[in-house]
Design brief:
Shape: globular
Radius of gyration: 20 Å
CATH architecture of the largest domain: 3-Layer(aba) Sandwich
CATH class of the largest domain: Alpha Beta
Helix content: 40-55%
Distance between the termini: 48 Å
Order of helices and strands: EHEHEHEHEHEEHEEHEEHEHHHHH
Strand content: 15-25%
CATH superfamily of the largest domain: NAD(P)-binding Rossmann-like Domain
Number of helices: 13
Number of domains: 2
Largest sheet: 7 strands, parallel
Structural class: alpha/beta
Number of strands: 12
Length: 327
């Protein structure tokens, strides 16, 4: 980032799992950060990090527009779906679309020469490679998507080139892990209740992963190094070679639970449709473009190592203690 002028970033979801790490790394890189947070706990977290908390939600459209109008860069990480995974995704698309409209309008009126809008999507919006290989950012749209996230992605990209706004989409893998959180924690908490680790089929399919810290660093690199194009897309993949067998075996070993192999329908019934969907996903996204254009260099511990000997060991202990106490 140019040293002569402090750049301003407005981040939605700034106190969340990924957003808080983006906030911390952006502050360390010298950016001034204002972060949207719904709860007082979230706002306190942002204050502790050194960011300026902003009270509001994705429905606070006037607020979003005003905050974006004061920013050089908007980073949109908040996700309305996380409030209720059972809600129709069309509702999520409507909420997200209105929020994006407000922030893009504010950014366009900001007077900043940067006007960069960094949005969040998923690698699963594209179709898996028929031969099981890795896909890049130009792969065709997934005809059977897990959800309607591609609509949100397209809406953000449509703002690129309008009134000087540039857009950049960061596609996250199915598994963002690290620091004892995210989907791995969710899987472990469900498996603690079912008494077994669920695996769909033989588990030999491969998936895509990234450590939360590596993902967060990529967002900050995009703020500084994204090419001067109206639209950019990056897969944030540190590895596309982890098998579901390795993943589930690691969880089973750490939790001391057996593994049960079953079909997707049975897994949906025993665990949840969400977990069955993730364990059936076959998209393997390449992160080469982010490495090449942003200078991104993932450096954190692997997902299997983190589950077996890292941050998820404590998660397993806490879940076992809760089960023992009847909580």
């Amino acid at each position: 980032m140019p040293a002569q002028q402090q750049q301003r970033i407005f981040i939605t979801g700034a106190a969340g799992y990924i957003g808080s790490r983006v906030t911390e790394f952006a502050l360390a890189a010298g950016y001034a950060v204002r972060g949207l947070a719904r709860s007082e706990a979230g706002r306190a977290k942002l204050r502790a990090l050194g960011a300026v908390p902003v009270a509001g939600t994705l429905a606070s459209l006037d607020l979003l527009r005003a905050e974006a109008a004061q920013a050089d860069i908007v980073m949109h990480l908040a996700d309305a779906w996380i409030d209720d995974f059972s809600q129709p995704y069309d509702k999520v698309v409507r909420i997200d679309g209105a929020a994006v409209d407000a922030m893009a309008a504010g950014l366009a009126a900001s007077g900043s020469p940067r006007k960069l809008f960094v949005g969040t999507s998923g690698i699963g919006v594209v179709a898996p490679d028929a031969a099981g290989g890795e896909t890049d950012e130009t792969a065709p749209e997934n005809p059977n998507p897990f959800n309607g996230r591609i609509k949100c992605e397209k809406h953000i990209l449509s703002k690129g080139g309008v009134d000087g706004v540039r857009t950049c989409i960061m596609r996250l893998p199915p598994f963002v892990y690290g620091r004892g959180g995210s989907g791995v924690w969710l899987f472990m908490s469900v498996f603690a209740k079912t008494g077994a680790v669920v695996r769909v089929g033989d588990g030999l399919g491969r998936t895509t992963v990234v450590h939360v810290d590596d993902a967060a660093r990529a967002y900050v690199l995009a703020a500084d190094r994204a090419p001067d194009r109206t639209q950019n897309i990056y897969n944030l993949s540190s590895s596309a070679s982890v098998t579901f067998r390795e993943f589930t075996d690691a969880i089973a070993a750490t939790m001391g639970l057996p593994v049960l192999e079953m079909g997707a329908a049975e897994a949906a019934e025993k665990a949840s449709p969400l977990i069955a969907g993730f364990l059936s996903d076959r998209v393997r996204g390449s992160g080469d473009k982010a490495r090449r254009e942003l200078g991104w260099n993932p450096r954190e511990v692997s997902i299997v190592e983190d589950i077996r000997r890292g941050s998820y060991v404590q998660v397993a202990k806490e879940l076992a203690a809760a089960a023992g106490s009847g909580a």
